[in-house]
Design brief:
Layout lengths: L2 E20 L2 E20 L8 E24 L2 E27 L10 E27 L3 E12 L8 E12 L12 E15 L10 E7 L2 E6 L2 E2 L7 E14 L4 E20 L8 E23 L6 E17 L2 E13 L1
Parallel strand pairs: 11-14
Antiparallel strand pairs: 1-2, 2-3, 3-4, 4-5, 5-6, 6-7, 7-8, 8-12, 9-10, 12-13, 13-14, 14-15, 15-16
C-alpha cells in the first residue's frame, strides 16, 4: 500500500522585563524564540506500477530575537511626543535532511532507509544567518489634530558582502484631521475629515549563501568522494534590495457618519531586486545572482460608504470599492514586462 504521513512539533514564546526610570521614560528588554521540527515520509510499495521507494525528510527551524528598548512619552500643553530607541539581534538556523532509497526496496512492506537495494541517496543542508539592527521611532501630536510619525532602522545582515551589508531605511507619516479645525469641529455636515501623506522605505538582504561558490557532495565513486560546484554563479558584490512607497489619501464622513469616502493614491518602487538571471551555459553556469529586478506599482483606490439605517436591529453599511493597479516589472536588463490589473466590488 502506498501512503504518506507527516508531523510537526512547535515551541514558541517570549519574555519581557521593563523598568520605569521616570514617569515618562521606561527601559524594556525582550527575548523571543520560535522553534519547530517537522518530518515527512512517503512510501511506494513493492509490486506497485512504480519502483518501490521510501523517502524520509526532516527539517528544523529556529529564530531567536533579543530586543533592548527605551520608550518615552511626554506631553507639553497642546503638544505630545512619544517614541522609542532600540537594538535587535536576530539569529536563524534552518537544517534539513532528506534520504531516499535507490533501486527499490529489498523486503516488501519494510519501510526503512537501510532496506534500499542500492546505496541510499541523502541530502543535508544547514543555513545559519543573522541580522543586527538599530531602530527608532518618534511621534508628535498637536491638539489631537496634527500628527507626525518618524521612523528609522539600520540593519546589518550576514548574507550581504562587507561594505554593502549595512542599510538604512526611514519612514515619514503625517495626518491632519481637518474636522478638528475651528468652524468644522462639531459640524453635522462634516463629521470627519482626515488628510494623510506617507513615505516609507524598506530594505531586504540577499538569500543565504549567495555570495561565494560552494561545493555540493554527490554520490561517492566507490571510496572516492565526488563534489561539484553549483550551476548558479554567486555574486560577492550584491547590494540590499530597496522598496520605496508614497501614499496620499483623503478620508471623509458626512451627515453624522451616514455617508463617506476614502480616496487614496499609492505608489511603490522596488529597486535592486536580487534574483538569478540566465547566462550562457558555455560559462559553466546556468544562472547568476544579480541586482537587476525593478517593480513599480501604482494604485488609485476609492472606497464609498453609506449607512443604510441606524434604526435597524443590525445597522448595515454599503461599501463600493474600486481600485486600479499598474505594475511595471523589469525581470532583467533586457526590457520591461507590463501587467495591468483593475478590480472593484460591492459589499453590504
Amino acid at each position: 500500500m502506498n501512503y504518506q504521513n507527516d508531523g510537526r512539533d512547535r515551541v514558541f514564546g517570549y519574555g519581557k522585563v521593563s523598568y520605569e526610570l521616570t514617569p515618562w521614560l521606561t527601559l524594556e528588554g525582550r527575548a523571543a524564540t520560535d522553534y519547530y521540527s517537522e518530518f515527512q515520509e512517503e512510501r511506494i510499495a513493492v509490486y506497485s506500477n512504480q519502483t518501490s521507494d521510501y523517502t524520509k525528510y526532516l527539517r528544523s527551524f529556529s529564530e531567536t530575537n533579543l530586543d533592548l528598548m527605551a520608550r518615552f512619552n511626554k506631553s507639553f500643553d497642546n503638544f505630545s511626543i512619544n517614541g522609542l530607541l532600540g537594538v535587535n539581534r536576530r539569529r536563524n538556523n534552518v537544517a534539513s535532511t532528506n534520504g531516499t532509497t535507490v533501486g527499490g526496496l529489498l523486503i516488501p512492506e519494510f519501510y526503512n532507509l537501510m532496506n534500499s537495494a542500492s546505496p541510499v541517496s541523502t541530502t543535508e543542508t544547514e543555513d545559519i544567518y543573522g541580522v543586527n539592527s538599530v531602530f527608532g521611532q518618534v511621534s508628535f501630536g498637536y491638539k489631537n489634530m496634527l500628527y507626525l510619525d518618524l521612523t528609522g532602522r539600520n540593519d546589518k545582515s550576514s548574507t550581504l558582502p562587507e561594505g554593502n551589508n549595512s542599510y538604512f531605511y526611514p519612514s515619514v507619516s503625517t495626518s491632519f484631521i481637518l474636522s478638528e479645525l475651528p468652524g468644522l469641529k462639531g459640524s453635522n455636515v462634516f463629521s470627519f475629515m482626515k488628510l494623510r501623506l506617507n513615505y516609507a522605505e524598506v530594505g531586504n538582504d540577499a538569500p543565504v549563501y549567495s555570495l561565494l561558490q560552494t561545493y555540493t557532495q554527490m554520490a561517492n565513486n566507490g571510496t572516492q568522494g565526488v563534489f561539484r560546484v553549483s550551476d548558479v554563479l554567486q555574486n560577492s558584490n550584491l547590494k540590499p534590495e530597496r522598496t520605496k512607497s508614497w501614499e496620499a489619501g483623503l478620508e471623509t464622513k458626512f451627515l453624522n457618519n451616514r455617508f463617506g469616502f476614502d480616496l487614496s493614491l499609492y505608489r511603490t518602487l522596488s529597486i535592486d531586486q536580487i534574483m538569478p538571471v540566465s547566462i550562457s551555459p558555455s560559462s559553466g553556469f546556468s544562472q547568476r545572482y544579480v541586482n537587476s529586478g525593478e517593480i513599480e506599482n501604482k494604485v488609485l483606490s476609492l472606497l464609498l460608504m453609506l449607512l443604510l439605517s441606524d434604526q435597524m436591529i443590525l445597522p448595515g453599511t454599503c461599501r463600493l470599492t474600486g481600485s486600479g493597479t499598474r505594475i511595471l516589472l523589469r525581470a532583467s536588463m533586457r526590457g520591461w514586462i507590463i501587467f495591468s490589473l483593475f478590480q472593484s466590488g460591492i459589499s453590504v
